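[Meeting: bench + compute handoff]

Bench side (C.D.) handed over the final construct sequence. Compute side (W.E.) agreed to return the predicted structure before the next meeting so the bench team could plan truncations. Sequence as handed over:
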Amino acid sequence: RSSDLQSVRWHRHGVRYGSGSGQQSVTGVTAVDDGNSYWRIRGRMNTVCQRGEAIRCGQVIRITHVNTGRNLHSHQFTSPLSGNQEVSAFGEEGEGDYLDDWTVLCDEDYWEREREVRFKHTATNVLLSVTGEQYGRPIHGQREVHGMTASNLNNYWKDRKS
């Protein structure tokens, strides 16, 4: 997935947050050929989402990192750079908890490829976002992905084929 305005893709790696939850961080990168930036959509906890089935606007989903099986996750920890809400990678083989659930927000009946969409965390009501804050070592230049309460241009995303 990538932010429409900044062409940022969600990225998961082995670096854990040094504060907050201590879980594995999720960052934003602009590289289009990075194998750690592939995610798949799954049904909410205890629900099956069939491959190829259209996703309704307002539907609750889980977003799972392809390589690690960890889910895009959020909770009441403060993100380290912006002071917004931390977003992390959590769970094992796609199984985590209710804090992995996100609601798809879009303007049509269904989420359509290449159309803008937003993701609202179902438990805390923040919107999945990326702004300009960048990390230093060991993940220099990667952007902080976080949850924001305000709806703005930083929380619109598009599905990218490549």
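W.E. noted at the follow-up: Residues 1-5 have pLDDT under 50 and may be disordered. C.D. will use this when planning the next construct.
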